[in-house]
Automatic annotation (TrEMBL):
SUPFAM superfamilies tied to this protein: P-loop containing nucleoside triphosphate hydrolases
A single GO molecular function term of this UniProt record: ATP hydrolysis activity
PROSITE patterns in UniProt: ABC_TRANSPORTER_2 (PS50893)
Location relative to the cell: Cell membrane
Protein keywords: Antibiotic resistance, ATP-binding, Nucleotide-binding, Transport
Entry protein name: ABC transporter ATP-binding protein
GO biological process, one term: response to antibiotic
Membrane disposition: Peripheral membrane protein
Organism from which the protein derives: Streptomyces mangrovisoli
Coiled coil: none
């Protein structure tokens, strides 16, 4: 197509990306936590934002959720400007932060009901929507137990139910499986997947776990020192590195992993102040019971 050929809009294409960041920058004093981030999350996909400690993932997400201002660049959520239309953006999304957000002294049902009230779920629909959200994460049988009796995996699923009760178009999860054992991690992902399949909701998730991203995300972005260093489907990224290595004549018995891809794009910088993928210094301890 020549530069002059008029483009016809694809009627099947969504009008807006779920999230679009252009030149997003955010600094804490001298620290450029996010440093010119360009990123688009397409409607309906599970998108993984990966990176080591301190890469800037949480800061970027907090700008997208309007919890932090957007001092430089632009953030749009389904076309709404996160700086100017904060309430509109908030209504479109469910957010599960890294920090525990469930109240240990309330039952699972009461915790979800609280979110239903805060997010203005109509009073008449509330009981049913709360029950649906709990059932979607397999907590119907435990709904009337205090959250402090839940295991770490159950707490994480409860937080997922809290975020789902308002039927968000975009679900943002900040390290949803950190601190969980492998079985609980799989459980959280299976519930995310099932809800996405049932609702078509877009999911943006941050994680240190490259294996999870490889298995569950449609596309991933590798973030390092405030910027995106690589972007694509997990297969594209792994095959791209494999091809490059073959072209360079490097011997390889197996296809590179996503971790190999990240080491390749971020280089030795990964091993200094940024920490390693699994160097989880986060104070959050989901594996422990709340309370
Ligand atoms: N409230 C704050 N005050 C000062 N510096 C901060 C603050 N929050 C984050 N930073 C710094 O900003 C940079 C990016 O941090 P951020 O938490 O966004 O990274 P991250 O990729 O989410 O890391 P993690 O995986 O450990 O959660 C880091 O250098 C961090 O030390």
């Amino acid at each position: 197509m020549s530069a002059d050929t008029p483009r016809t809009a694809d009627p099947a294409a969504p009008a807006h990306d779920a999230v679009s960041c252009t030149g997003l920058a955010y600094a804490f004093g001298e620290t450029n936590a996010v440093d010119g981030l360009d990123l688009s999350v397409r409607e309906g996909e599970i998108f993984g934002l990966l990176g080591p400690n301190g890469a800037g993932k949480t800061t970027a997400i907090r700008c997208m959720t309007t919890l932090l201002p957007v001092p430089a660049g632009m953030v749009r959520v389904f076309g709404l400007d996160a700086s100017r239309e904060r309430m509109g953006v908030r209504r479109l999304l469910g957010y599960v932060p890294q920090q525990l957000s469930a109240d240990s002294g309330l039952t699972g049902r009461e915790n979800v009901a609280l979110f239903a009230r805060v997010f203005d779920v109509p009073r008449k629909e509330r009981a049913e929507r709360v029950a649906q959200a709990l059932a979607a994460v397999d907590l119907a049988d435990a709904a009337d137990r205090l959250a402090k009796t839940y295991s770490g995996g159950m707490v994480r699923r409860l937080e997922l139910a809290q975020a789902l009760v308002s039927a968000p178009r975009l679900l943002i999860l900040d390290e949803p499986t950190i601190g969980l054992d492998p079985i609980a991690r799989t459980g959280v992902w299976e519930h995310i997947n099932a809800v996405r399949a049932a609702t078509g909701m877009t999911v943006l998730v941050t994680t240190h776990y490259m294996d999870e991203a490889d298995q569950y995300c449609d596309r991933v972005a590798l973030m390092h020192r405030g910027r995106i260093r690589a972007l694509g489907t997990p297969d594209e990224l792994r095959e791209g590195l494999g091809e490059r290595r073959r072209a360079e004549g490097a011997a390889q018995d197996t296809l590179p992993t996503l971790e190999d891809v990240f080491r390749d794009v971020a280089g030795s910088g990964l091993d200094d102040q940024s920490g390693d993928f699994r160097d989880v210094r986060s104070t959050r301890r989901t594996a422990q019971r709340v309370g």
